[in-house]
Design a protein that fits this description.
- The chain has 10 helices and 7 strands.
- By secondary structure, the protein is of the alpha/beta class.
- Strands 5-4-3-2-1-7-6 form a 7-stranded parallel β-sheet.
Length: 262
């Protein structure tokens, strides 16, 4: 499969498939659906939101079941934790007002929001540490905003952490300009962070040839597959067991297992 393989940063010597569920702790429904998939072995790692209504319970559940959790940095969806700091909510709202209206905003560094980005990112790193009892050694972003210019150029994510790369696309799936920009961002990420070899989303589930390419890549590379089990089609694919028919020859492992292997 032709893709951005030349930018890969190997994190293990053999093929690995990491099935990661986003929005852990966002609310009871998201956490419940993800937990079903974790307990049946279809999801191996989760990305946890903090300052949300379900964050406290999700952290307790993760510790109870030994679930591998990283930080799902949230710069765009309002914090829903009752009693959340008004100051923090105000700073996050500024970021959301800037990032959400245009898909190009994330690519432009906004000097006027530097302090807001610093404050909101630092607060979430600290809250993750409080809830999970350790620093986040893996970070990705809600709506992928961990890749926005202010976060990357401001070096707001701790060096050495594993950070989610851009989506991997085959030649022809995106414009040349789009793919060149993604390559540039991944190169910047790789200077300070560890990356998987490839990153895909589970949907679309059709055509099936797309899934064949993804699971085939995991036979010899480290592949992260992003999922949202709260969505019925994805939940059925995972909890219903279809994923196991596609991964008979592939090891589904957690991010944590990569650390132990190294």
């Amino acid at each position: 499969m032709k893709s951005d393989a030349e930018l890969s940063v190997r994190t293990a010597g053999t093929g690995v498939l990491i099935v990661n569920a986003d929005d852990w702790g966002r609310d009871e429904e998201n956490t419940g659906r993800i937990l079903e998939c974790v307990r049946c072995g279809a999801v191996s790692s989760v990305s946890a939101m903090v300052f949300m209504e379900g964050s406290e319970r999700a952290a307790a559940v993760a510790q109870e079941f030994g679930i591998d959790a990283g930080l799902h940095l949230n710069l765009t969806t309002p914090f829903s934790l009752p009693g959340c700091s008004a100051k923090l909510a105000e700073h996050q709202q500024r970021l959301s007002n800037y990032l959400r209206p245009s898909r190009f905003a994330s690519a432009v560094y906004h000097p006027g929001l530097t302090s807001s980005f610093e404050y909101v990112v630092a607060a979430q790193l600290e809250e993750f540490r409080r809830l999970y009892g350790a620093d986040a050694d893996r970070i990705d972003g809600h709506h992928h905003m961990h890749l926005c210019a202010n976060v990357l150029l401001g070096k707001l994510l701790p060096a050495g952490t594993m950070v989610r790369r851009n989506f991997t696309f085959a030649a022809g799936e995106k414009s040349v300009g789009n793919r060149l920009y993604r390559k540039f961002v991944d190169r910047q990420l790789a200077k300070r962070h560890r990356l998987t070899d490839f990153f895909f989303s589970l949907p679309p589930l059709e055509p099936r040839e797309r899934l064949e390419r993804i699971f085939s890549a995991a036979s010899e590379s480290v592949v992260e597959l992003e999922t949202h089990p709260v969505k019925p089609a994805e939940h059925q694919f995972l909890a219903g067991g279809e994923i196991f028919r596609w991964t008979e020859a592939t090891s589904i492992r957690s991010f944590r297992s990569l650390h132990s292997a190294n």
